Give the backbone structure.
Amino acid sequence: MCGIVGYTGSREAVEVLIGGLKKLEYRGYDSAGIALQKNGKLIVSKAAGSVADLEKTLEDRFSNTQAGIGHTRWATHGRPTDQNAHPHSSMSGDIVIVHNGIIENHRSLREWLSGEKGYSFRSETDTEVLAHLVEDNYDGDLLEAVRKAVAFVEGSYALVAASSHEPERLVCVRKDSPLIIGIGDNENFIASDIPALLSHTRKTCILEDGEFASVTAEKVDFYNEEGCPLEKEIFEVNWDITAAEKGGYDHFMLKEIMEQPMAVRETLRQRIDVKKRRVDLTELDSLKNELAGLEKIYIVACGTAYHAGLIGKAVIEKLAGIPVEVDVASEFRYRNPIFAANQLAIVISQSGETADTLAALRLARSKGVKVLAITNVVGSTVSREADQVFFTWAGPEIAVASTKAYLTQLVALYLLAIHMGESRGYIKPGLGSELIEGLQNLPGQLKALLSEDNISKIKTYCDHLVTWKNAFFLGRNLDFPVAMEGALKLKEISYIHAEACAAGELKHGPLALIVEGLPVIVLATQKAVLEKVLSNIQEVNARGGAVFAITGEGFEDIDRQVENVFYLPPVNDIIAPILSVVPTQLIAYYTALAGGSSIDKPRNLAKSVTVE
Ligand code: F6R
């Protein structure tokens, strides 16, 4: 996600800001910028690319300044260009802002500001509306202007603003996006993440949602939404820089697992019309004609993204009635797929750079088939070459093993399936709104699922699993692709061989491998096949296999057969794969941890596979 730094004090501000931005580079970004107070004016420099690229643009006039703000941008609305980089300036240039998050109602605000209010826009970003809103509400007090401005805004924001009329002051506010104040000696700092502060101070105050801070070199004042002063506690950070980069977690993978509630919320944001209880995918309008007359869909992807595709197939066929074929990208182009009119190809790629997926995209387009890409990276090759893009907005994923990116790919596919089912009139009456409510419940349910109690249950099983060289993952129906994903994740980071098996296939061969103590993780979330899964569990139990069952509330019969049961929160069976994969991620993580393997960078694997 994007990074923010702010400084006011007697040091060379440009150095503090650039140093802070460099400390946030590990998070991934595609452009950077700074704004500094200089002789009653705000001077701004921005560059697509790295902080080093930004540094090259900074002439002498950027030195001898004592306050400013900086930003690293991970593109969401608008490509990674100089213009779209932050800080964004108001029309007069008297206000500059940096922003993390998404302004949901930016379209209507942009129309209003550029029409009735006469502001002209220079970027494609959602953020720029904030600069104009602050200017429009500025009457000599930056805090009041920011307070009034954010009242117009729906969405998430960590926002820092500066005004040329108040050269030593920065004002900030947050909602659903982190922001921290660093307290120094006659100098103060603002940052979106602790690593940017650590070389200057360990005294921090964490802003909560709806809280504002007015920051000068001498003091920091906090206010609530109504503008009333607040007392805040100072928190002494004792993390070293490595722990701070991982938000205090031991590994990026665990951090990213824990970020899933927020990531899912971001994917859903702006894509549900809450009043009408409908999916709102106006972003796909350019494919309206293709979607209306579709007779077949190809989904093409690799690895984890391929597993998302398998679930996508099941839900699109169920909810929209369109036949779907799913292909591993490295096979797709060599099997001469039969292309025809009324087809759509969906490619799924977290990085948007996977060579095989890109080749599949190019093949489909060369045959006249439109391509919709589901990806997490704005500006990636896949996003540039596809006919239309559905961004997952999970934020950068650093661990090689994909977790939050996968979960948000699933959410994207569910939204798409409901959207197509509704627009084709295929989905059963009432089911669309029931599933939409289910999707909206996910962030809260994911949070509950990641509780200490649940994690300790998993850890106990992992202490057993780590002593084995092989494991099975079983599932039927929608649980089978989840079993495949669970097995892949375990292999990748723990180096334990894991095989996913459609539970009904057990007796056609794999049962020969079940012996006393062998770890068998069983996904059992689908009511329609529950009895059959229970029979499969008995087949495993009879041979002494050590079952860990992941199941739903109301499926308590499993308790009588299995010692280790992990219950999911109540959820419609169709949506269950979005929750049930999370315990399998934790199983992989804690087994790898117990085994001492390199979790974030497993041997032989890379985050972005740009070769065939
Ligand atoms: C596994 C994993 C890989 C990727 C695959 C495709 O955890 O991350 O299997 O899913 O290499 O990568 P993307 O999604 O970037 O195309």
Summary: The longest helix spans residues 404-423. DSSP finds 19 helices and 27 strands in the chain. The mean pLDDT is 94.
